[in-house]
Amino acid sequence: MVRDITPHISHEETDSPVQYRFNAMEPLNQLQNLPPVVFPQSAEIDSNIPPTTSKQRRRASSLDGSLDRDEHLWQSLRTGTEGTKESVFYLAYGSNLAAKTFLGKRGIKPLSQIIVLVPSLRLLFNLPGVPYAEPCFAATQFRDPDSLQDQEDDSEYDSVSSVDGEYLPEKTPLVRETRELPTGSHAHRWNKPLVGVVYEVTLSDYAKIIATEGGGGGYRDIVVDCHAFPDDYRSTDPVPSHPETPSFKAHTLLSPQNEEDESGSALVPPASCSKPSLLTIGRHMRPNLNHAQPSARYLDLITTGAREHNLPVSYQEYLAGFHSYQITTFRQKVGKVLILLLFGPIILALFALCKKLAGPDGRSPSWLLSLLNLVFATMWKSYDYFFKNVFGDGERTLDS
User: Fold this and answer.
1) Alpha helix locations (H) across 65-202?
2) At what angle do helices 313-320 and 296-308 cross, to 10 degrees?
3) H helix and E strand count, the chain
4) Per residue in 327-349, pLDDT tens?
5) pTM of the full predicted structure?
6) Local structure of residue 272 (DSSP, 8 states)
7) In whole angstroms, what is the distance from residue 189 CA to residue 137 CA?
8) For residues 13 and 15, what is the distance between their CA atoms, to the nearest angstrom?
9) Which residue in 281, 288, 243 sits closest to 264, CA to CA?
10) 121, 287 in Cβ contact below 8 A?
11) What 3 state SS string does 280-323 have?
């Protein structure tokens, strides 16, 4: 997946902001439309399920000249997409699995779809969002399908019983347990290919996807090899570690953390820029990628989408094992209100400008992306040096 970077403000009974003389909740309610830029939503989500992508269409993705294997597709989109009947494959792994997000909020109408395995990628929750509201979002990172690097020493992890042992290294198939990250993030070890859905979409819809995923500044567009599940595969069957079905090409969005240097800094210039400059300040990345927890709202979108597409049961159980961020103290509630009041109006204004100035490729101007990323970096610096010390942790549930 793909990620939904739209922070959402929940109004649970246990999470009510401090009462003020003025209506403080009015500007907060508007923050439901935070990034990405939201396109008009139809009154009803089309309930027609797209057909399964044909083998012929999948084979065509690997041919010379195919847009599916074009690593510079965004340049082609700049020439305009109106009237074209060409389509492109897009791999979703996050909130875009859910019809509520992909078909509803984003207004995408897939021509076909198919569930896939992607051996070269893993799922992460490492893209910073908004403290106390949407701490992080889903992203992908490269993995080596043949490497045992992820199978670290048992002493570094806590063991939890697992239903089918799918989370374990293949050399210990009889041990039924789940491996937790040392930070206790509940991001269970999944030592098998990423599971997702490849949508076939028109070029105009693909440009819309780019626009709603940060306008080209939040992720990096890459081409990956995907493998369809065998025709006789059932969702209760084990997930194969090394898919044997023919591969085909699809575009997806990679975490910019892959561009970081050894110090952990990740200043990634927008893809539309040829070289870094003062106008290409990249998205601020957190120092501890395994600390933040996604919101309950965001996790629900992903797990709901997994059910809608009938992804493998073991992968659904893996997704259900993630713990969401919860506000547990009054100070955190106050911190949430204050940080949204301080940065919310600026972010709203910048994303409205992104929507207005987005090009035919869905990308916003580099100077605007840099300004938006600078605001996010400032917000997180404020959180690190002030909000976290005064109001408590805005990324991870206390005592989780």
Assistant:
1) 73-77, 99
2) 170
3) 10, 9
4) 999 999 999 999 999 999 998 88
5) 0.74
6) T
7) 18
8) 5
9) 288
10) no
11) CCCCCCCCCCCCCCCEHHHHHHHHHHHHHCCCCHHHHHHHHCCC
Q: Around Cβ 176, how many Cβ atoms within 10 Å?
A: 16
Question: Which pair of tokens denotes residue 116?
Answer: 């896939």
> Rounded to whole angstroms, how far apart are CA atoms 343 and 27?
11
Place of tokens 């209506």: 23
Q: Which of 115-129, 247-261, 362-376 has the highest mean pLDDT?
A: 115-129
| Cβ atoms 253, 94 nearer than 8 A | no
Q: Which residues are bridge partners to 196 per DSSP? A: 116
Cα 202–205–211 angle (5° rounding)? 145
C-beta of residue 182 within 8 angstroms of C-beta of residue 157: yes
Report the largest interatomic distance among the alpha carbons of the chain, rounded to a whole angstrom.
Answer: 64
Question: Among 1, 324, 279, 310, which Cα is nearest to 138's?
Answer: 1
Cα-based distances in Å from 145 to 151, 193, 241, 318: 12, 7, 8, 19
* CA–CA dist 282, 13 (Å, integer): 37
Over residues 283-304, mean pLDDT: 85
DSSP of 106-167:
S----SEEEEEEETTEEEEEEEEEETTTEEEEEEEEE--TT--TTS--GGGS-EE--SS-TT
Residue 270's SS3 state is: coil
Residue 53 is encoded by which pair of tokens? 């992508």
Q: Half-sphere exposure of residue 166, counting CA atoms within 13 Å on the CB side?
A: 22
Strand partners, 128: 136
SS3 readout for 336-395: HHHHHHHHHHHHHHHHHHHHHHCCCCCCCCHHHHHHHHHHHHHHHHHHHHHHHHHHCCCC
Q: Extract the tokens encoding 167.
A: 């989370």
Sign of CA dihedral 346, 347, 352, 358: positive
Number of residues written out for the chain: 400
Question: Looking up tokens 């992607």, which residue turns up?
Answer: 118
Tens of pLDDT, residues 309-323: 999 999 999 999 999
230 and 245 in contact (C-beta within 8 Å)? Answer: yes
Tokens of 291: 């600390």
Partnered with residue 178 across adjacent β-strands are 160
Q: Phi, psi (5° rounding) for residue 276?
A: -65, 150
